[in-house]
Amino acid sequence: MALPNVLMQLAKSSPMMGQIKQMMGMIRTAQNPQAMINQLMQNNPQMKQVMDIVNQYGGDANKAFTETAQHMGINPNEIMDMLK
User: Could you tell me which residue, 1 or 23, shows the higher pLDDT?
Assistant: First the structure.
């Protein structure tokens, strides 16, 4: 099994996927999503790392996600399908 396929299988079975879905839902329904993201960055060093990567792409989270996934040999659409 190729590395991207192994990573996809891990992502599908990871409890983190549920946490990501929950966080996305909270951000979508927040009255002030930016404030919520700022709070998450303060409480979670990994979230700050993610935002640092997004900032490297001029604040374009979609571009950061797509290019990072492709660089890792993962189809970004497969990840998005898992988050639905």
Answer: 23
